Amino acid sequence: MPLTFELCPGRMVGGNHPCFIIAEIGQNHQGDIKIAKEMIKMAKDCGADCAKFQKSNLACRFNKQALERPYNSKNSWGKTYGDHKRHLEFSHEQYRELQKYATELGIFFTASGMDEMAVRFLDEINVPFFKVASADTNNFPYLEETAKKGRPMVVSSGMQSMETMRQVYKTIKKHNENFVILQCTSTYPLDPADVHLRVIPEYQKEFPDIPIGYSGHESGIYISVAAVALGAKVIERHVTLDKTWKGSDHAASLEPSELAELVRSIRLVERALGSGVKQMLPCEKPCHDKLGKSVVAKVKIPRGTVLTLDMLAVKVAEPMGVAAEDIFQLVGKTVTEDIEEDESVVPELVDSYGKKAKC
């Protein structure tokens, strides 16, 4: 059984606990705190467990030249990449306002700390867990500093190899046992052929003592639901209020109706997964009583006859006789009363037959 732990106050992940669903708002709020609040409420209304943003200290995350380069994309919010990112970046005070709003609504709030300074700020405002974006997964000094803070971590694995992920696991594990690794492919939107859900069971074998999840950038919900069927314990999906808005993430994001359907579908699949124990269930008894087959006499069998297989047949019978799967156990046993052709062979009429008919 994979490790279970408390990812957020009162909310366990792993094992048989419900999948934890993260609505990744990221920077799809267009730099508008009113829209950001609408998206938090949307995530709550759709049944997500957590609303997540992206927090950066731009000078710590980018070098000067990266911030000053011209940015002429159709998705640009400024003449330079720095201007663009500054437009989308909320202040510390705005983050506290958003966190307060999420708390009032009753949905967990956190963010990806996109650099060490951002992580320190998120630690100060007491987020329940740190999200590590794929771009920082191989940033080992960052991982160590984040892990040492002791908060649970959710770590995406886009753009990484299995060998790197083994090193990531060891690096975090030295300082912090409470973390999740998410299978992820970093492209937007994601072609189904590049999803590679089979990495999920590979991660489960490589890292059997932590929960494994999935961060998806594909269109639609089906692949994410399939990830849950494969054992994903955390699902993260980008969300938007409108796929046509400016920004490269919107096309790979879920609109409210899709997010609500994702949550419903995950909860349905979780119910359907059930247990690994195969047995006849109480709900099957009416069908078994009506159509379940049992052993009947193919010919008339006089009292004292030693049974052979050619005397027996399997049919839907009334009353129900010896269970069909036990027909071979009757061979060589003696009947204690006459049995007419086509009558049920019930346990009481067979000497030394110890099993009772199943129901």
UniProtKB/TrEMBL annotation:
What Gene Ontology molecular-function terms does this entry list?
N-acylneuraminate-9-phosphate synthase activity
Q: Does the keyword Aminoacyl-tRNA synthetase apply?
A: no
GO cellular-component terms in the record?
extracellular region
Q: Which CDD domains match?
A: SAF_NeuB_like
Domain AFP-like, by residue range, is 294-353
Alphabetized InterPro entries for the sequence? AFP_Neu5c_C_sf (IPR036732), Aldolase_TIM (IPR013785), Antifreeze_III (IPR006013), PseI-like (IPR051690), PseI/NeuA/B-like_N (IPR013132), SAF (IPR013974), SAF_AFP_Neu5Ac (IPR006190), SAF_PseI/NeuA/NeuB (IPR057736)
Tell me one Pfam family matched here: NeuB
E.C. number(s) listed in UniProt: 2.5.1.57
Q: Which keywords label this protein?
A: Antifreeze protein, Secreted, Transferase
Instruction: Specify whether Transferase is a keyword of the entry.
Output: yes
Any one GO BP annotation for this protein: carbohydrate biosynthetic process
Provide the catalytic activity annotation: aldehydo-N-acetyl-D-mannosamine 6-phosphate + phosphoenolpyruvate + H2O = N-acetylneuraminate 9-phosphate + phosphate
Q: Which residues form a coiled coil?
A: none
Give the main EC class: transferase
Which cellular compartments is it found in?
A: Secreted
Superkingdom of this protein's organism: Eukaryota
| Annotated function | Contributes to protect fish blood from freezing at subzero sea water temperatures. Lowers the blood freezing point. Binds to nascent ice crystals and prevents further growth.
Its family? Answer: Belongs to the type-III AFP family.
What this protein is called in its record is N-acetylneuraminate-9-phosphate synthase
